[in-house]
Fold:
Amino acid sequence: MFGSFIKKSRAKSPWIMHFDCGSCNGCDIEVLACLTPLYDVERFGIINVGNPKHADVLLVTGTVNHRNKKVLKNIYDQMPEPKAVIAIGACGNTGGIFREAYNVVGGVDKVIPVDVYVPGCPAKPEAIIDGVVAGLAKFAQKVEEA
Amino acid sequence: METLIFVIIGLVAAPLLGGLIAGLDRRLTAWFQSRQGPPIMQAFYDVGKLFGKEKMVVNQWQILCAWVYLIAAAVSVALFFAQGDLLLVFFVQAIGAVFLVMGAMSVKSPFSQVGAQRELIQILAYEPILILVFVGFYMVTGSFSIHAVWAQDTPLLAKMPLLYLALGYALTIKLRKSPFDFSTSHHGHQELVKGVLTEYSGPYLGLIEIAHWYETILVLSLCALFWHTNVAWMALLLVATYMLEILVDNTMARMTWRWMLKRVWLLGMGIAVVNLIWLYAG
Structure:
């Protein structure tokens, strides 16, 4: 009974950690817009935490460059399992228009495994919420298989 | 036998009630901000999820400290429901509070360290208030035992109104609500990441959350003792007090520890002492 409650709780309490990996701030504003009364992601039990050790879902915006790839990896490693990663916006997905720049590594998936890609420049808050919900489904599946 | 039944009821009901209050609190706060807010059971989902997370600790001390905090909080609630000695309840609760700080200090993270220092200052602010309230109980009933309260035939609120107000400071600090939420906040974000709780994670954070529910119930039960003659009035007093807490939380900014010490020591302890003088003279 306790085990099934824990499983059920996972999908109902995703705590989110948001990392700006060199974004232009467009996607970050949209991520924060999800918390406002208009979108109110707390309806789904989502809390925006500032601590990777408390987080279940990592939202990454922006391109990864050689400077911050270590930071991204470090934050990812500090999150306890089970966890999900969601790349947000064109830059987070592929590197966007900065893809060919000499200092850019590329999308988030060059450094850490990504579960869900949310497209857009910037990504819409609705799309971000959809992405988190899709991420939770994947993460429930991962837990089931493990 | 009857005492044992009370203790078991206290140990089982306190976390359930505490979690429910935490859920209702978030719901009401959301309503104040014209949001819908999470389900009322959200606090239980959060803790359920935390218990399913990977066990990640910086050192073994954290495990011990989280457990001692939980056990001390549970034992203090059990002692309270066994109608025990208020001073004993106080000391057991204080042990738990100190262990929480020790666990946070056992790691190098500056967020955790500063949070622990602030938590110590908060303990320094609310513990004298609790002691003064217990002294008030002693002056009215002639005993530190909770049994003696039930022998009174008038509500204690009539004799200790200022002590009740002072207890409000202790309640706000214990609930980690604004303006006193600088060691850690019950909201997601705080300037010290999560302050004293930063380095506790997964199941150990879950244990601390349950201990927090126990402590919430402990302080609310203490408030309930102020109107022991009538259950309806007792409930009304508790609901009114908690609503006021939520209102204060939503309308106040987070203040500094200096501001807190000034308010709680001068104003809080001041009105508590005035009430004690009144009881002594009266």
User: Anything to note?
Assistant: Residues 110-141 of chain B form the longest helix (32 residues). The interface with chain A takes residues 26, 30, 33-39, 42, 44-49, 51-56, 188-190, 193-194, 198-202, 205 of chain B (CB under 8 Å). Residues 58 and 107 of chain B are 7 Å apart (CA to CA).
